[in-house]
Amino acid sequence: GLAAWFMDSSDEDQRKPHKLDPNMPVSMEDLQRLGVFHWKLNADLKGYSYMDIITIHKDTLPNYEDKLKMFFEEHLHLDDEIRYILEGRAYFDVRDDEDRWIRISMDKGDLITLPAGIYHRFTLDETNYTKAMRLFVGEPVWKAYNRPADEFDIRKNRACFFWLLR
Ligand code: KMT
Ligand code: NI
């Protein structure tokens, strides 16, 4: 857990690490610039009004194959995505401000928040199992907009933010 790197562009198995050769790590600071926060649980789970637990394994998740396919489609949400890994491992891939894929490796005890409007996707790794807590501020909205979804204000706000940061 707690590691991130730029991804290669090979079409090989999505569950492999897909590191560049040589590896190009992405720091916590770089992720924070993108609005992505990723840390070991510091008991700061305050302020969330909804929680559930999803067990992603072929024997426990209905429509396992379809769901994994859906999770790996590049998409965004209009709310933050907050996940806390309880067991197993997984990867969250996010697009940086230059549209490069960053792979974030997550395992037991890792918490991540993805900001509303960031393009991202999710995959298991080759261990094929993770149990995650899904947290939400307010009423949960699971609606995902597959790319392209640039018509939303949140996308324009993000573009403006990165333009100002340049
Ligand atoms: C999402 O929206 O990307 C997901 O819910 C990923 C799977 S939950 C660990
Ligand atoms: Ni998502």
From TrEMBL:
<keyword id="KW-0539">Nucleus</keyword>
<dbReference type="GO" id="GO:0016151">
    <property type="term" value="F:nickel cation binding"/>
</dbReference>
<protein>
    <recommendedName>
        <fullName>Acireductone dioxygenase</fullName>
        <ecNumber>1.13.11.53</ecNumber>
        <ecNumber>1.13.11.54</ecNumber>
    </recommendedName>
</protein>
<comment type="function">
    <text>Catalyzes 2 different reactions between oxygen and the acireductone 1,2-dihydroxy-3-keto-5-methylthiopentene (DHK-MTPene) depending upon the metal bound in the active site. Fe-containing acireductone dioxygenase (Fe-ARD) produces formate and 2-keto-4-methylthiobutyrate (KMTB), the alpha-ketoacid precursor of methionine in the methionine recycle pathway. Ni-containing acireductone dioxygenase (Ni-ARD) produces methylthiopropionate, carbon monoxide and formate, and does not lie on the methionine recycle pathway.</text>
</comment>
<keyword id="KW-0408">Iron</keyword>
<dbReference type="GO" id="GO:0019509">
    <property type="term" value="P:L-methionine salvage from methylthioadenosine"/>
</dbReference>
<comment type="pathway">
    <text>Amino-acid biosynthesis; L-methionine biosynthesis via salvage pathway; L-methionine from S-methyl-5-thio-alpha-D-ribose 1-phosphate: step 5/6.</text>
</comment>
<feature type="binding site">
    <location>
        <position position="120"/>
    </location>
    <ligand>
        <name>Ni(2+)</name>
    </ligand>
</feature>
<keyword id="KW-0479">Metal-binding</keyword>
<dbReference type="GO" id="GO:0010308">
    <property type="term" value="F:acireductone dioxygenase (Ni2+-requiring) activity"/>
</dbReference>
<dbReference type="GO" id="GO:0005737">
    <property type="term" value="C:cytoplasm"/>
</dbReference>
<keyword id="KW-0560">Oxidoreductase</keyword>
<feature type="binding site">
    <location>
        <position position="81"/>
    </location>
    <ligand>
        <name>Ni(2+)</name>
    </ligand>
</feature>
<keyword id="KW-0963">Cytoplasm</keyword>
<feature type="binding site">
    <location>
        <position position="77"/>
    </location>
    <ligand>
        <name>Fe(2+)</name>
    </ligand>
</feature>
<feature type="binding site">
    <location>
        <position position="75"/>
    </location>
    <ligand>
        <name>Fe(2+)</name>
    </ligand>
</feature>
<feature type="binding site">
    <location>
        <position position="75"/>
    </location>
    <ligand>
        <name>Ni(2+)</name>
    </ligand>
</feature>
<dbReference type="GO" id="GO:0005886">
    <property type="term" value="C:plasma membrane"/>
</dbReference>
<keyword id="KW-0472">Membrane</keyword>
<feature type="binding site">
    <location>
        <position position="81"/>
    </location>
    <ligand>
        <name>Fe(2+)</name>
    </ligand>
</feature>
<feature type="binding site">
    <location>
        <position position="77"/>
    </location>
    <ligand>
        <name>Ni(2+)</name>
    </ligand>
</feature>
<keyword id="KW-0028">Amino-acid biosynthesis</keyword>
<dbReference type="GO" id="GO:0005634">
    <property type="term" value="C:nucleus"/>
</dbReference>
<dbReference type="GO" id="GO:0005506">
    <property type="term" value="F:iron ion binding"/>
</dbReference>
<feature type="region of interest" description="Disordered">
    <location>
        <begin position="1"/>
        <end position="22"/>
    </location>
</feature>
<feature type="binding site">
    <location>
        <position position="120"/>
    </location>
    <ligand>
        <name>Fe(2+)</name>
    </ligand>
</feature>
<feature type="compositionally biased region" description="Basic and acidic residues">
    <location>
        <begin position="12"/>
        <end position="21"/>
    </location>
</feature>
<comment type="similarity">
    <text>Belongs to the acireductone dioxygenase (ARD) family.</text>
</comment>
<keyword id="KW-1003">Cell membrane</keyword>
<comment type="subunit">
    <text>Monomer.</text>
</comment>
<keyword id="KW-0223">Dioxygenase</keyword>
<keyword id="KW-0533">Nickel</keyword>
<dbReference type="GO" id="GO:0010309">
    <property type="term" value="F:acireductone dioxygenase [iron(II)-requiring] activity"/>
</dbReference>
<keyword id="KW-0486">Methionine biosynthesis</keyword>
